[in-house]
Amino acid sequence: MSAFSSKLQQRAGVILTALALCTLASLLIAGMTGSVAVPLADMPAALSELIHGQPASLAATLLELRTSRALTAFVTGAALSLAGVMMQALLRNPLADPYVLGLSAGASVGALGALMFMCAAWMVDAAAFTGAVTISMILYWLARRDLRGGTAAEGGTALLLLTGVILQCACVAVVTLMLSIAPESRLRSMVFWMIGDLAGAPVRWLPWTVMAIAIVFALRNARAMNVMALHAEAAATLGIRVGALRKGLFFMSGLLTASAVTSAGSIGFVGLIVPHACRFAVGPDHRLLIPAAALAGGTFLVLADTLARTALAPQQLPVGVVTAMIGAPVFLYQLHRLRK
């Protein structure tokens, strides 16, 4: 048994090390690539200038701007991917993603309302976060019995999912109303926010804090998530506090989604395809799936944003368009693999 456990630990170490190296490579590519390329030979000097806080050269200035955007893309992608893992474990539905319960639609109502009234950037972020949290509180109040219950029956998760879909439809109606009455000068920024855009997104401490708390929570409950996924009906009899676990997964996935949407708008497919891809690659064990999905999701969004910046340079595409164009065929392929 100890030899088997040792092999699993070695495999996990190799996989996570490879993903960490891929993350570093993606950040390096993001820093070098753009309308004006930064040669690899100039990177050490530019990094030295940034470390000392004196970005004097063009290479250092470009690297500072691109690194800030890449770090925001990484934490956003990691948050969406981790929220997808938690949401799929909570709803026991492989098609669940961070947006399925209407949290992104609530954030859209808040952010687009602030954009329509030409509020400052920090007020747009605050309104988006408030909208997502408000929808999560309403959803919890409406489905609190299902989340508190000690059983993970299909009926409870189906009711929670249906409630979230109804709230999302209501928020989409409000968003449509705002887009129809908004002045033309504000429409472009409002549409870009809805699609998902990282242009000008600064590095904030809140998404990183939420990410750290969520990873600690998820890793501490990884074994319980495994048991609930395999033996949902009998999880309570096996010593799992199902009610507390479901509430924790609900609130943590809601916080991750709110922080991600606040930073970059509604970016689709990351929280849907990355968890599935990681399951195909590393298996369903949440002890390995959780860190793997976070690293893979962050890396994927960094590379997608780099492509969005450079595909039609100097014009920039919304990163949500790129993730959708990549995510749709990838998800169809995953469904085909799932049937086989």
Q: What's the pLDDT, averaged over the residues?
A: 85
Number of strands: 0
Fill in the CATH topology.
ABC transporter involved in vitamin B12 uptake, BtuC
Helix content class: over 70%
What structural class should be given to the helix and strand makeup? mainly alpha
Task: Give a description of the structure.
With 340 residues, this protein is mainly alpha-helical. The chain has one domain (19-335): Orthogonal Bundle (ABC transporter involved in vitamin B12 uptake, BtuC), CATH 1.10.3470.10. It has helices at residues 2-32, 43-51, 58-91, 103-116, 121-142, 144-148, 154-181, 184-195, 205-220, 222-230, 242-264, 270-282, 286-310, 319-339. Helix 1 crosses helix 3 and helix 3 (58-91) packs across helix 12 (270-282). The protein starts with a helix and ends with a helix.
Key terms:
340 residues; mainly alpha; ABC transporter involved in vitamin B12 uptake, BtuC; 14 helices; 0% strand; globular
Quick take:
The chain is an all-alpha fold. The chain contains 14 helices and no strands. Helix 4 (103-116) packs antiparallel against helix 5.
List the helices and strands and how they pair.
Elements: H1 2-32, H2 43-51, H3 58-91, H4 103-116, H5 121-142, H6 144-148, H7 154-181, H8 184-195, H9 205-220, H10 222-230, H11 242-264, H12 270-282, H13 286-310, H14 319-339
